[in-house]
Amino acid sequence: MPLFRKVDAVTVPVPDLDSGLAFYRDVLGHALIWRNDELGQVALRLPESDAELVLSTGLTYEPNWLVDSADEAARTIVEAGGRLRETFDIPVGRIAVVDDPFGTKLVLVDLSKGLYTTDDKGEVTGVSSPD
Predict the structure, then answer these.
(1) Which spans in 5-58 are helix H?
(2) Residue 38 DSSP symbol
(3) Which positions fall inside the VOC domain (predicted)?
C-alpha cells in the first residue's frame, strides 16, 4: 500500500485572509469551504478534486500529503534515510514535517480527529468525529 493517500491540500501564502479571498475566491472563482481566523487559514474548493486550496498567513507554498498516520509515515521516511523536522497536533489531526533522503520537505497530514464543521458563512464551528 503506498504511503501517500492523496494530496490533501496545497497551501498558498497570502498577506491576509481578506485580500487572499478577494483574489482566489472573488476573481478566480474558488468557493469557500471553511475559514479559521485563529489559524490564519481559509480553504477553497478545487471543483474537480476533494483536495483543498488553503490560503495561509503563516505557511509557505507547499503540498500537504494525506496519510493514515503522520507519526508512522514520518517514521517510515526517517528509517529510509529522511529527516524529521517537527510533529504537531492540529484541530483535525496531526502533522509531521520531514525531509526525504534528497532534502525535499514533505508535509504529512492525518485527519485522525475528524473534519471541520462550519456555519453557513464557512466559519469553523468545531470538528466532526472521524469516520
Answers:
(1) 17-21
(2) T
(3) 6-111
pLDDT at 131: 67
Q: What distance in Å separates the CA atoms of residue 53 and residue 32, rounded to the nearest whole number? A: 10
Assigned domain for 76 exists: yes
Q: Retrieve residue 128's grid coordinates.
A: 466532526
Q: How far is CA 91 from CA 58, 86, 113, in A?
A: 16, 17, 7
Domain annotation covers residue 129? no
For residue 128, being part of any structural domain is answered with no
**CATH code, domain carrying 41:** 3.10.180.10
User: Does residue 40 come out as left (phi exceeding 0), alpha (psi in the -120 to 50 range) or beta?
Assistant: left
Residue 130 has pLDDT above 80, yes or no: no
Distance CA 108, CA 127 (A): 19
Could you tell me the residue range of the domain that residue 92 belongs to?
6-120
Say what the pTM is: 0.84
Residues whose CB is less than 8 angstroms from the CB of residue 102 and which lie 6 or more positions away in sequence, other chains included:
none
pLDDT tens-digit profile of 28-62?
999 999 999 999 999 999 999 999 999 999 999 99
Examine residue 93 and state whether it is found in any structural domain, yes or no.
yes
